[in-house]
Amino acid sequence: MQTVTIEGYLAAAPSILSAQGSGRKRASFRVLETARFRRADGQKGERTTGFNCVCFNEATAETYIAPFARKGSRVVVQGHVENDTWTGRDGTVHYDLRVVVDELRLKNRRDDSGAAGEDELPEVGQASGLGPDLDDEIPF
């Protein structure tokens, strides 16, 4: 089994879907990750990759993802890669890779009013008091 860890941003609000037979809920979302690099000629470049993710854990989908995750939320997803195959309406077979989520961590930023979301952990050096106070004058 291939385990992956992806850190990126949600491309859209997650969709919470119910299975037709059992009614169990799952969350489906897309995580975008951007890699920045320098080309051989020295120019900067970037490449954005999208990862389709699905979380089958019903409790996580209902109590964690649905109320707190939104478009633009920063997330860290850990899971395994799975091949997804389906047949389109025109009869064409489509193939895609998806990440089946084992662990998910939301790292939401502060909103414009400065209030932190309920699921946000304080960043080191800001609210936690673990880092240096950058408001002090530099002693040299």
List the SSEs and their pairings.
Layout: E1 3-10, E2 15-18, E3 25-38, E4 44-55, H1 58-68, E5 74-87, E6 93-106
Parallel strand pairs: 4-6
Antiparallel strand pairs: 1-3, 1-5, 2-3, 3-4, 5-6
How would you sum up this structure, described in words?
There is one protein chain. The chain is mainly beta and 140 residues long. It has a single domain, classed as Nucleic acid-binding proteins (OB fold (Dihydrolipoamide Acetyltransferase, E2P), Beta Barrel), CATH 2.40.50.140. 8% of the residues lie in helices and 47% in strands. The chain is built from 1 helix and 6 strands. The protein has one helix spanning 58-68; strands at residues 3-10, 15-18, 25-38, 44-55, 74-87, 93-106. It has a 5-stranded mixed β-barrel with strand order 1-3-4-6-5. A hairpin with a 5-residue loop joins strand 5 and strand 6. The protein is globular.
- Binned, the helix content reads under 10%
Number of DSSP strand runs? 6
Annotated CATH architecture: Beta Barrel
Which whole number gives the mean pLDDT? 80
Give the C-level CATH assignment: Mainly Beta
| SSE class | mainly beta
Topology as a string of helices (H) and strands (E): EEEEHEE
Shape: globular
Q: How many helices does DSSP assign?
A: 1
- What name goes with the CATH superfamily? Nucleic acid-binding proteins
**Ends apart, CA distance between termini:** 54 Å
DSSP strand content: over 45%
- What is the CATH topology descriptor? OB fold (Dihydrolipoamide Acetyltransferase, E2P)
